[in-house]
Every structure is written in structure tokens, then in C-alpha cells.
């Protein structure tokens, strides 16, 4: 093996990131383990040290992206010192996470069937939202709460999609614009 193909960093994570970029550029069907190795600059056998096959690789990519997304949402709730702003912080973190990681957004929500009621980021989002709204008023029935959760999730999910499009928002003032949009909605 040539010395320039030797890899000494975190190969597994690099394969995931390079794989996401490859899928974004050429499509999921075009990805093979050989092409993944080539795009990462390692031997064709190297990815198999971490993944049994393409399906195992894609499963790991989903887990990796979901874990990073979930961890960002958890941090947003833990870092919020003002309980009345927790939903705002959660929504802002959601949107900015996907702005900073547009490949994650496209990957997660274009090829995966997500069981929303068992999807950890949604469950966290739902639990935080329901708790916040119940603390404001005890007059919420479960149907109304669920509708509000879906409406808020839709808002931040749609906004996440929009911020990944060129020209949709002022990128020089993205955080302030996201805050203004989220503040304009009464939840």
C-alpha cells in the first residue's frame, strides 16, 4: 500500500462525513463501499473494518447524524436558564444545527422513514414543549397539545429547510433573522 493512503485519524467518522458528501453530490444509488473508500483516500478494504456492507454504513450514518442532532437539542435545553425561553432555544438550535450541517438535513429527511412518535429528537422536542405549555396553563387536552407540538415542529423543520437554500434568508445575519422569525410566532 502506498504511504499516502495510510490513514491515522478517525476513519469511521471521516467515512461517514465523506459518505454524506458523496450521497449529496451523486445520490444514494451511486454510492458503493469502493467509491466511499476512494473518496476518503483509503484502500478499498478499509471501510469494511468499520462497516459490514453499504446497508450497515447507511445505518451508521443515520445513527451518527441523529446522535449529533439529538445532542444539540439536549444541550439547548440544558443551557437555557430561562424556562420561558426554552422552546425558543430549542427551535433556534434545531434550525442552526441544520444550517451548519445541510448535508445532515438532506440525508435524514430524504431517505429515511422516520417513526416520529419514536424518533428521539422529536420525543425530546415534544416532551419539552408539552411541559412548557402545561406550566403556562393546565387547560390543555392531549389533542390540542399534540397539534401545537406538530405545528411548532413543522415551523422549525420548514425553517431548517429554508435556511439551507441560497438566498432565502440573510446569511450575514442568520442567527438574528432566525430569532426574529421564531419570536414572531406565539406558541
Automatic annotation (TrEMBL):
Keywords: DNA-binding. InterPro entries: Homeodomain-like_sf (IPR009057), HTH-type_Tx_Regulator (IPR050624), HTH_TetR (IPR001647), Tet_transcr_reg_TetR-rel_C_sf (IPR036271). Signal peptide: none annotated. Residues 9-69 form the HTH tetR-type domain. The keyword DNA-binding applies. Gene3D superfamilies: Tetracycline Repressor, domain 2 (1.10.357.10). The keyword Nucleotide-binding does not apply. Residues 32-51 bind DNA. One of its GO terms (molecular function) is DNA binding. This is HTH tetR-type domain-containing protein.
